[in-house]
Amino acid sequence: MARTAADTARFAVVETISVLAGGVIGTLATALFGWLFLSLDFAGIATSPGFYVLGVVTVALFALFYAKLPGTPATLLSLGVGVALPVVIVRFAFDRSDTFATLVVLELAFAIVALSVYRFVHASGLVRRAADAADGR
């Protein structure tokens, strides 16, 4: 089945919303997790634009992995990159003094939440589109 320009535009919009939602909600969940379980400052993470940019870029990599790889390898690679990339960037670029173990646990929480939100929003958008196509709209 050939994709029309409208299908491509819809897919781009769904992908953009999925990436933004995954990055933002993942960052907020990370701040909440750090505050509840690791005694970190909630506002220090939740109000930092750098964490949101890092979150959106990381989730954009998830979208790239899912576009190029089958489901299981894309998920595993997304989780690995979703932990490793933010740990390295937060440790060295953001100059945080948190321990390595704290950063790994924090970014593991981010990767799980961000990937879950990305996949949920992405799947919901594509399901709606398929339903509209089947309905004849």
Q: If you had to describe this structure to a student in words, what would you say it looks like?
A:
By secondary structure, the chain is mostly helical. Helices cover 85% and strands 0% of the residues. It has five helices and no strands. Helix 3 runs antiparallel to helix 4. The protein starts with a helix and ends with a helix. The mean pLDDT is 86.
Notable traits:
137 residues, elongated
In short:
The protein has five helices and no strands. With 137 residues, it is mainly alpha-helical.
Record field, number of beta strands: 0
Q: What gross morphology would you assign?
A: elongated
Number of helices: 5
**What profile does the largest beta sheet have?**
none
Task: Provide the β-strand percentage band.
Answer: under 5%
Radius of gyration: 17 Å
Low-confidence stretches: none
Protein structure class:
mainly alpha
Q: What percentage of residues falls in helices of 4 or more residues?
A: over 70%
SSE pattern: HHHHH
Return the average pLDDT rounded to an integer.
86
The termini sit apart by 17 Å
